[in-house]
C-alpha cells in the first residue's frame, strides 16, 4: 500500500483511494494527485480496495477497470452498494469497458479513457473534490 507524505493531514483533506494493478501507473497516479493537495492511498487490486473502503472513509475511488480478480466495475458496484455517496472515477484503455460502465446508475460515477494527460486527470478529480 502506498500513502502520500501528507498522511497526517487534517480530515478536511479529501481522501482518494487509487486501485491500479500496474505498479508504475499506480505510483504515477499517487504522486500526481497527492501533489495537488489530496490525501492518497493506493492498492493493487479490487479485493484489497474493498477492504480499505470498509475500513476507512474515502471521498473518491479512482480505479482501473481491467484488473485480475475483482475488476473495477464490480468493485465500483459493491463499494457504491455499501456507500452510495462514494464518488467513483473509472479509468480504462478499452472503449468497450467505457461503454459497459454506462450500466452503473446514479451520480458520482465517471469514466476517464487512457491515455489521458495529467491536467485532464486532475480536472476530473476536481469535479468530484473541489479544493
Task: Give a description of the structure.
The protein has 131 residues and is of the alpha/beta class. 38% of the residues lie in helices and 21% in strands. The chain has a single domain, classed as Rossmann fold (3-Layer(aba) Sandwich), CATH 3.40.50.2300. It has helices at residues 23-34, 46-55, 72-82, 95-100, 118-128, and strands at 2-3, 15-19, 39-43, 60-64, 87-92, 109-113. The protein has a six-stranded mixed sheet, with helices on both faces. Strand 5 (87-92), helix 4 and strand 6 (109-113) form a beta-alpha-beta unit. Helix 2 packs parallel to helix 3 (72-82). The protein is globular, with a radius of gyration of 13 Å.
The CATH topology label is: Rossmann fold
Strand elements, count: 6
Q: Return the domain count.
A: 1
CATH class: Alpha Beta
Quaternary structure annotation: single chain
Helix content: 25-40%
Q: Based on helices, strands and strand pairing, what is the structural class?
A: alpha/beta
Topology pattern, helix = H, strand = E: EEHEHEHEHEH
Mean pLDDT over the full residue set? 85
Shape: globular
User: What is the rounded Rg?
Assistant: 13 Å
Specify the CATH homologous superfamily.
Response regulator
Measured between the Cα atoms of the first and last residue, the distance is 25 Å
Poorly predicted parts? 4-10
CATH 2nd-level architecture:
3-Layer(aba) Sandwich
Lateral arrangement of strands in the main beta sheet: 1-3-2-4-5-6
| Largest β-sheet summary | 6 strands, mixed
Output the number of helix runs: 5
Strand content: 15-25%
